[in-house]
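This part of the workshop introduces the protein records we will be handling. To make this concrete, we reproduce a full record directly below.
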Amino acid sequence: MSYFEEEEDEGKPITQKAIHESLKKNCGYVNSPELNDVLYLHYRAFTKIKNLDPYINLKALWLNNNAISAIEGLSNLKSLACLYLQNNIIEDLNGLEGLDSLKTLVVSNNFISNITGLSGCPNLTTLEIDHNRLKQPESLAGLADVPELTVLNMTDNGMESEKFAEYLLKIPKLRVLRNTGNPVTRNMDNYRRRLISMNKELRFLDDSSIEFEERRLVNAWVQGGPQAEKAMREQIKQEKLQQQDENRIKFRNMQRQAIIEAGQSLKDHPELWSSDEEESETSSEGNLFTVSSDDQFFITNGANDETKDEKLPLSPLKIEEEHKEPEKSKITIISEEKTNEKASDKFDVDELD
């Protein structure tokens, strides 16, 4: 009987005929199985994994949306990096032994009630095990076998106890955790704060990312409660305002410098003049004000003329105020004509006498 006529007594196993059909459909190598690195065997109602031993260089295997009840027949796939088994009827993770290269395992929408059998995948980084039956915290104990795990999706598993968080400590490199749809997200006090504080590398929790600002707030909350968190929130607000002011001043200085390099005068651009507050702040940093002969204004950083310090423009109004000539003294000067006139008047009076 040829392999095209293979029959099984029970179920519908993966046959060589089915594999060849898939390879032809997806432009694979039918006569050289070792040359294939991808194999699509999904949506075929298979019940048993078989006949994959010749495909030793497979890197990705799609077995999702079948009727597979057990993981088996994969031990010869030493190069396998991605395995897709979602939407089957699998009850446990046994059968993954020897898959040292496996990095991504997707077993969503199955009937798994306990994480076991991952010791054969020491380099696993992504585990999608959502929509299963991981209801008890102890069902996560097997995560300790995959310390390189960075992405864990355990959405909609019926997890209720907050003790599940203790098992996450076994995977110190965890960066992405999806846990929505589990009752624990509602039952656990300060759920998000506590998970962020416990998992130092976590960057994404449920449906939102964890920014540096949020982690600062959480750290403050851990150290001093709500009051410390409130104080940190105000501190962050002030830091943002200060940064905005600094950015605005830097941008204005860049605009001034561009105008000067274009041979224009800052007097024609009043919108770029600094406020007194900004100039007093600048002068307090030890800057020297200088004026060029062609009516261009600069702030020179540093007192040494030999250094090539950055030149920043200074407000023309400020320059004019600092270099204004002193006001003349209010002294009445009598002209010579007036003096002679008054002298003449005096002489006439004397003669009359």
Remarks:
- The chain has two domains: 3-225, 232-322.
- The domain at 3-225 is CATH 3.80.10.10 (Leucine-rich repeat, LRR (right-handed beta-alpha superhelix)).
- The two ends are 162 Å apart (CA to CA).
- Residues 1-8, 280-324, 328-353 have pLDDT under 50 and may be disordered.
